[in-house]
Amino acid sequence: MVKTRSTSPGEILPPTPSPPGRKQRQRQPGRRAQPRVDSFLEAATEVFLEKGYRNTRLTDIVARSGGSLSTLYAAFGDKEGLVHAIMERSIRSFGEGLDILDEPGLAPADALPPAAERLAAEMLTPERVVSHRIIIGEGIAFPELRDWFFEHGVDPAHARLADYFSRQVAANALVIDHPAIAADQFYMAAFAGTIIRTINGKLSPTDLPAVRAQAREAALVFLRGVLPR
Asked: In angstroms, what is the C-alpha Rg of the chain?
C-alpha cells in the first residue's frame, strides 16, 4: 500500500506524509507479502463495518484474516495504519471518478452526470462506508483521522470540482458566480443523502442502480440552474 497526497486541486499522487502521532510501519510489504496485506485490509474493512472503529481490536482482524499480529504490525504499524490504508484506497478511487471532468472538449452536460454516477458508486464501496462512519460517526473521538481524511480526500475533490467550474465559466459554458460554493452545492445535492443512508445502514451495494440514477438526476437539476440561458 502506498500513501497518496494532493499536489494540485484534486490530483492524487503518492506519497502522503503520515499525520502527527501516527506510528510508522516497520517496512513496506514486498510482492510476496502483498496477498497477506490485501487479506488484512479486506478483513479490517469487514470488521470495522460490523463493530465500528472504536470497538475493533487487532485480534479481531487477525482472527478474520489469518496470519499473525507480528505480520500485521510489520505491514501497517497499528489499527490506525490499517484504517489509513482503507481511506487511501477510497480516496484514490474517488479521484479517478473525477477524471472525466478533465477530458477536453466534453460539455458540462456530458461530463457532470456521468461523473456524479461514478462518484455515487464509490459512496457505496465498503472502503468509503468505513471512512464515512469513522469521520462522521466517530470523528469527535478520532479527530486526527477525521482531519486527515478531509485534508487528503474531501478537500482536494472539492477543489478539483471548483477548478472545473472555474474553467467552464471562463469558457462561457456555465454561469456561476462562486465556483467553490457551487462545488459544495453540487456535492451535497448529489451525495449527501447517499452518505447519510450508507452510514446508518439504509443503503447497500444492492441499491447501486437507484443511487446512480439519483446522482445523475441531481447533476441534471444542478445543470439547469447554471447553464447559460
From this structure: 19
CATH value of 5-226 in 3.40.50.720, 2.40.10.10, 1.10.357.10, 2.30.40.10? 1.10.357.10
Please tell me the pTM assigned to this model.
0.82
Q: Residue 12 carries which side chain, given as an amino acid letter? A: I
The residue among 183, 39, 44, 176 whose CA lies nearest residue 119 is: 183
Please count the residues of the chain: 229
| Strands annotated E in 4-123 | 5-6, 12-13
Residue where the block lists cell 469521520 = 135
The pLDDT tens digits for 68-116 are 999 999 999 999 999 999 999 999 999 999 999 999 999 999 999 999 9
C-alpha cell at 24: 510508522
